[in-house]
Amino acid sequence: MPAIPLSAPPGGKRQRDPDGVPICERGLRMQPTFAFSHTYGYRSQRFRCPLLFPQKTGQTCDHAQFAKGKGCVKDLNWEAGGLLRVLLDRAGPLYQAVYRQRTGTERANSQAKALGLERPKVRNLRAVRNLNTLTYLLINAHTLQRARQRNATLFSPQGLRTIGA
Fold it and tell me: Each residue of 52-79: pLDDT tens digit?
């Protein structure tokens, strides 16, 4: 499951139906026209204004493209991964757990990089595992040391007076 936060598109949050079909600014479900290979390499689906496609309904819209006669058009990534990325429930507990795990791993990797352990100079799997274990032990030792220093300053006689004051 991807644990990537959803970045807001340039025009703000886009609305979609539960099956991924976009909703136009007027609140209508857009109509699929054709699928094609996007220049970025994924399968894309073109959606068009429901007031103009498949037939013109005679209704009008205040969208800027509607006055030009083509209406709003959206080309969306229609592959399984692209749909999963935008339809994922980011408020759910499963996503939150995976996201916390990802950010924790990224914090550990950045600490390892700061310690100069970004690229191991070993070649076999056992040596890499041992080096990773030692890296995590070192990171945990630094964390424990910082916690002890913080507790020492908070619970010292000078620190207790400033907290209670």
Answer: 888 888 888 887 878 777 888 899 999 9
* Domain contains 41: yes
Helix axes 157-164, 125-154, angle to 10 degrees: 70
Look up the domain containing 153 and give its range. 112-164
pLDDT digits (tens, 9 = 90+) for 110-140: 888 887 777 778 889 999 889 888 888 988 8
- CA 51, 55, 57: angle at the middle one, nearest 5? 45
In a domain, 104, yes or no: no
Q: Quote the DSSP letter at residue 46.
A: E
Contact between 31 and 54 under an 8 Å Cβ cutoff? The reply is: yes
Whether 77 and 116 map to the same domain: the answer is no
Evaluate whether residue 31 is within a structural domain: yes
